[in-house]
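Page 37, continued from 36.
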């Protein structure tokens, strides 16, 4: 999987909150078509890193390239139009709008000059693809947790990303549901989208990730295949005494 064009390149990214370096000198590359997992114990800096990638935060130092372009100082919308999509750890659809309307908003946001009817049609296709078509006319707040996660992915896909960032979209799912979500991410990859995901559920990481980046206390402590990083003594030590199961 490595080799080929780089879609995301982080060089020495850091983010300081007051006295805390939540992300410290993080560098990695993601290659086109690759599924890259970012793992690490609670508070390791994973979500902060994703916020740096998507443009929610500007880095305290470091540089970020998206699809060959320096986007370090670019806002969220610019990165989105360039091809970066994101689903959030805390799902936040518009609760009173229908499922279909929520995805339509994503489709309208992704591309300038799209007509409402084209966006509505596209949104419906995405609902079919993510298994949400039966819920199309329900209000978003009526969804189950699994359906919520699907909606979050559908909304991110609606912006037509080339790179999709997912923050714990499997959290709280039952194993069978997580397997469905794994299949959805695989199909996203199959359509040519590179996926970077944060995940605590190790079987999901094992099944999905081409490569794994491990963070602890803001830093990258290991990088490699699932087998390589889970055999790494520094990674094992970082997980000791945490609730996360490293070998699931
Ligand atoms: N906006 C903020 N202001 C101050 N500190 C923050 C902020 N966001 C995160 N932090 C701190 O930065 C550190 C990294 O947090 P982050 O949310 O990135 O971790 P995480 O790896 O995503 O954890 P989890 O697995 O629990 O989601 C933590 O110590 C957290 O308390
Ligand atoms: Mg997090």
């Amino acid at each position: 999987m490595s080799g080929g064009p780089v879609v995301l390149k982080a060089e020495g990214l850091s983010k300081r909150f007051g006295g805390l370096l939540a992300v410290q000198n993080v560098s990695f590359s993601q290659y086109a078509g690759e599924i890259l997992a970012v793992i690490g114990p609670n508070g390791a800096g994973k979500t902060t890193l994703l916020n740096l990638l998507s443009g929610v935060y500007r880095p305290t130092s470091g540089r970020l390239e998206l699809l060959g372009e320096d986007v370090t100082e670019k806002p969220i919308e610019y990165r989105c139009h360039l091809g970066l999509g994101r689903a959030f750890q805390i799902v936040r659809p518009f609760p009173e709008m229908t499922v279909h309307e929520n995805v339509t908003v994503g489709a309208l946001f992704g591309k300038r000059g799209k007509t409402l009817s084209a966006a509505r049609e596209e949104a419906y296709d995405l609902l079919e693809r993510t298994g949400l078509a039966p819920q199309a006319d329900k209000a978003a707040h009526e969804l189950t947790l699994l359906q919520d996660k699907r909606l979050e992915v559908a909304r991110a896909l609606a912006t037509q990303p080339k790179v999709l960032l997912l923050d714990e979209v499997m959290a709280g799912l039952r194993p069978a549901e997580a397997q469905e979500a794994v299949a959805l991410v695989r199909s996203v990859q199959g359509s040519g989208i590179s996926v970077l995901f944060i995940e605590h559920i190790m079987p999901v990481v094992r099944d999905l990730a081409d490569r794994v980046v491990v963070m602890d206390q803001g830093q990258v402590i290991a990088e490699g295949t699932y087998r390589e990083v889970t055999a790494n003594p520094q990674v094992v030590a970082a997980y000791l005494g945490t609730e996360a199961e490293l070998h699931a």
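Residues 46-47, 89 surround magnesium ion (ligand 2) (CB under 6 Å). Flag for discussion at group meeting. Residues 1-83+161-248 form a domain with the Rossmann fold fold (CATH 3.40.50.300).
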